[in-house]
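Sequence in, structure out.
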Amino acid sequence: MADRDLAEVYHVETKVLNQAVKRNIDRFPIEFRFQLDDEEKTELVTNCDRFETLKHSTRSPYVFTEQGIAMQSYDIYF
């Protein structure tokens, strides 16, 4: 799940969500969240219309695995 979608679920800004991860990075295994590379970002924008706004963004989104989503649900509120 993309960071912006997860932020929407928790009713916070994407920046706040990613800051929560950075604040608790020692408890958040790296395999639970990763950043798309430029090729993956381009493919995402090409195949999913709702990500059109990322087309000209210089930042690639972070994406969360199922375990990352579960971990983030704890970190965002505590």
